[in-house]
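Why does residue order matter? Because the sequence determines the fold. Keep that principle in mind as you read this record.
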Amino acid sequence: MCSVAQRVTLRLCLAVFLLVIPSTTKSQSTELILDRVDEGKLNLLASQTAQKIREAPIEDAQPSVLVIDFFRNSPGTPSRLGSLLADHFSESLSAYSNGMKIVDRKILKDYLTKEWTTLENLQSNDVCLRIGRQLGAMGVIVGTLSEKEDSVTLTLKIEGLGLNAKIEDPFPRSGTTAVLLLNEDLRRMFSEPGPNYARKPDEIPQEPGVFRSGPGVTPPTCDKCSPPDYSDAARAAKFQGNVTLSLVVTPDGQVNSILVVKGAPFGLTSKAIEAVQRWHFKPGLKDGMPVAVRVEVESSWTVY
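Structure:
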């Protein structure tokens, strides 16, 4: 059984939401410029992937598959290039989708937006698969990008379709990868972070009669603040991460006006909200008098 260490801290958070810069391309959704050679490599990889899915030892007559954002070197390390390539690859795979269903990646993006979560939370293939199944996919395609001199290698893996160690690897090494040349634009995209679906703290408007901690205003401190529970789904996925909430501590130390700044999957955001609703604080002070103060609080879950 996993043991879980939890901690609660007060902190100021800043989350950056990166917008994709439009560019000219044949693809309507990826907004990514690829030359014909690299375009052909991705299309060939999509064709090979579709064929391997059709050959997978599964009973479902029409398996459903979701393409997860492609990560730098390991899951949970996003890049702008990885997200755009995943969009592009998902479109290419749809062209070879006879006998299967390719789940629209917009469903994944909507989920991340609704949960105010980040791509860093997709920290393992198992987490990706479990989230994919929550979104209606039987299996997921995960990919990693590794840079070498003037190229980047995309390596794919299929999870959840019966492709495990007991079965001969359906992807021989020659079929798992596509090597793309890095021009200046692609290299820049590879170094840029991927989209961040968390909320910017400065998007929370100033409320009448509510202060922010700073000069002249002391922050509230936890009086009775028990950590949130660890959900069964998160435990099964061995997920570890944090949730950041923005809340108002009233002059009598109660909590209200709870907003999510950064969430987490597997119901942990709800667990964090349920916990803080029971919390009690020593209120913040202005000129020695208790006042309402908005603060950010973080709940963390770590699996050992």
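The two ends are 10 Å apart (CA to CA).
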